[in-house]
Specification:
The protein contains eleven helices and nine strands. It is α/β, with parallel strands linked by helices and about 270 residues long. The longest helix has about 35 residues.
Length: about 270
């Protein structure tokens, strides 16, 4: 083999090696991108209700975070349906990719109004939550059927500077009314750290409901004394719930007493999208 032929052979080998290397890198890139797409999970945004606060989601969050879900537990202002929904909507706007929006109790009314055309919201999960229709209020819905005993357990309202009133549950009534299936020691802490809601918020009419266009899931306890189970069943059926779980013996704070069941239905909603 002369020197010219040898050089041509070397050049050909280098070209083949470069081509194969590029092909392998491209293939690996495609595999990595595909894996990333498969591994990506929606962001779970959780909205607490009246007389609770963000830590009420801790048991659920522990399970979702362990499975790799991005999570946000929003601090619901509890001042009014429209303003609270606007606040949550502002959080949603800052999230890229699909969202599963979860609401407990009054937080259900908030998520019903917070979607507001946001196409990233792929699912709604109502955890012992209100799912009002246009014009309905939390007070009206909770009293539509017998079973709610919240009224007599409320402490005297606290007058606000704007002539409104803040409502709390009396601490000595909190365990039996709100969280009967949670250890007493824990409910004492919950009663002490409860967030008040304005009386006006519970009587504020809801706007157009997101559940008419966004798929929904429902979970609640059959011993809920704030929102009777019959009311929640009615709302779930009306919203054409994709899955409804009734937890036997569970109180209003089913996410505290049965975090595994709540995390599981959230995962079902996430997987559907």
């Amino acid at each position: 083999m002369n020197m010219l032929t040898f050089r041509k052979s070397i050049r050909l080998l280098l070209i083949v090696a470069l081509f194969l290397g590029t092909t392998i890198i491209t293939s690996l890139g495609a595999i990595i991108n595909t894996a990333s797409a498969q591994d990506s999970k929606p962001t779970i945004v959780l909205v607490h209700g009246a007389f609770a606060e963000s830590s009420s989601w801790n048991g659920v969050l522990t399970r979702l975070i362990a499975k790799g879900y991005p999570t946000i537990a929003a601090a619901n202002p509890l001042r009014g349906v429209k303003s609270d929904a606007g606040y949550v909507a502002s959080i949603l706007k800052g999230i890229e990719g699909p969202i599963v929006l979860v609401g407990h109790s009054y937080g259900g009314a908030v998520i019903t109004n917070a979607v507001n055309g946001n196409k990233n919201v792929k699912a709604l999960v109502y955890v012992a939550g209100f799912a009002p229709n246009t014009g309905e209020t939390a007070v009206e819905l909770s009293g539509r059927y017998p079973g709610s005993t919240l009224g007599p357990t409320l402490a005297p309202p606290i007058a606000l500077s704007d002539s409104g009133k803040d409502l709390y549950i009396r601490q000595d009534k909190f365990h039996a009314q709100f969280a009967a299936d949670v250890p007493v020691a824990e409910t004492k802490l919950m009663a002490t750290t409860q967030r008040p809601i304005t009386e006006a918020a519970l009587n504020e009419a809801s706007g157009a409901p997101a559940w008419k266009a966004t798929p929904s899931w429902f979970i609640y306890g059959d011993r809920d004394l704030n929102i009777p189970a019959v009311v929640q069943s009615f709302m779930a059926k009306r919203a054409n719930s994709k899955e409804t779980i009734v937890v036997k013996g569970a109180s209003h704070v089913v996410m505290v007493s049965h975090p595994e069941a709540v995390a599981k239905i959230i995962e079902h909603a996430a997987a559907n999208n």
